[in-house]
Amino acid sequence: RVTNNPADNELVVAKYDSGAGNDRQWYLGVSPGSINFAMHSLDAGTQSNTSFALTFATDIWYFAAGVSRAGAAELWVGDENTPVRLVANTTNFADLTAQAGVFSIGCYSHNGSVRADTTFDGYIDEVRVFAEALSTSSIMAYYNNGVSGVAPYMRAYYKLDHASGDAVDLTGYIETALTNTNTVEQQSIELPFKDNGIFFWPF
Known about the structure:
By secondary structure, this protein is mainly beta.
């Protein structure tokens, strides 16, 4: 949920790898007038983007999923009033499977430093990363029913439902907790894939 309409490329989730000969990143984020799923190969000077034009409302929650599938990318978007649907795709998208590096929520971390111009201005909940491309039925199920426990091929799951402390991955694949640098506020929402009255992280 955005607090203000995006002023820049504000990132919901991102991963950056600065290894020699493999300087690249992927992210799911919002920018003025659009929501984006992108892969940038900084060494090669190439980038692959899929985006959807969107006028953001500041009082509703959005559901977004970026899927990398055999060199193609899909962007799925829904909100409180509109069911999730495939809104954009591209056939020219770099593979994400071999990427190591720094994973972040609500910003982009470059060599251990947060890029201030990428900080997300809003609230984020229920962040999940999978090692396999989700099917249409799986994406629809997550939108409508949420998550019950750790699903197959899930490699990171941050509920972000605690009032203080760092974010812990519930799958067990990521041992290091993500550091929380913000004060958490309690929210109440109406989306079908969420529970009311739990905690969400503001950024």
